[in-house]
């Protein structure tokens, strides 16, 4: 079976009333007619775009164990699929009040009055780590279909999006190099991948911060028709489908 046979149907975001998709294929967020786009972001100098999120520390303060296996490595179709399917990358779409954006020198982004009664515009951002998770989750779904010879799920995109995701993950790794030296014991397959004293940034703090400023958005590309029916999915106003949390482990990797 050729790989291309699994990815021919076009990727389609769920439509909503008075909603257009963003012009950039890299940004997975719906645009409404009330949103205002900033033309200045790409014209700003690098030093003018240095932002500060006071609630989030850049210190690697959390001790985490990197295990060789986890629910995410399971070849059991039910367990492995459930672990990956529960990840909600849309948790990384945040809506920051304009006053917060200006106070912390954050670059302008799409601006909208997200909720009725908003006293100031909210600027929409997709946290990069969640963007990479979206890519990884989608690539895993593609590989899983190939590995088990399953029919391609209708929500999976054409080739251009996976190739974008491969390169986005590459760039993310190069921008965030990990200098940990992993011991090699009796060959690659015997390497000690367990690092009990690994120091990490605080993902739980990031999750909580994203929850505080959530953009009322759910990355729904992996929802089946049955799941949408069970959760009473709102096809008209997609912003009513938001669920708390990101589906990732708490206090561990």
TrEMBL record:
Belongs to the ustYa family. Pfam families: UstYa. One of its GO terms (biological process) is mycotoxin biosynthetic process. This is Tat pathway signal sequence. InterPro entries: UstYa-like. PANTHER family: OXIDASE USTYA (PTHR33365:SF6), YALI0B05434P (PTHR33365). It comes from Botryotinia convoluta.
């Amino acid at each position: 079976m050729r790989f291309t046979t699994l990815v021919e149907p076009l990727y389609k975001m769920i439509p909503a009333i008075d909603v257009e998709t963003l012009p950039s294929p890299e940004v997975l967020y719906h645009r409404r007619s009330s949103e205002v786009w900033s033309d200045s972001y790409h014209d700003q100098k690098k030093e003018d775009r240095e932002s500060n999120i006071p609630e989030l520390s850049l210190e690697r303060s959390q001790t985490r164990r990197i295990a060789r296996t986890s629910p995410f490595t399971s070849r059991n179709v039910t367990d492995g699929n459930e672990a990956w399917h529960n990840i909600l990358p849309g948790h990384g779409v945040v809506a920051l009040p304009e006053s917060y954006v200006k106070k912390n020198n954050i670059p302008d982004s799409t601006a909208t009055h997200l909720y009725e009664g908003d006293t100031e515009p909210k600027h929409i951002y997709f946290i990069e780590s969640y963007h990479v998770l979206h890519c990884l989750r989608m690539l895993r779904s593609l590989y899983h279909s190939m590995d088990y010879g399953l029919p391609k799920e209708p929500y999976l995109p054409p080739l251009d999006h996976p190739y974008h995701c491969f390169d986005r993950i590459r760039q993310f790794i190069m921008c965030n190099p990990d200098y940990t030296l992993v011991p090699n014991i009796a060959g690659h397959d015997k390497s000690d991948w367990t690092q009990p004293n690994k120091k990490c940034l605080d993902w739980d703090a990031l999750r909580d911060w994203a929850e505080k400023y959530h953009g009322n958005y759910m990355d729904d590309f992996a929802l089946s028709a049955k799941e949408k029916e069970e959760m009473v999915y709102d096809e008209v106003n997609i912003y009513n489908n938001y669920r708390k949390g990101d589906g990732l482990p708490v206090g561990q990797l």
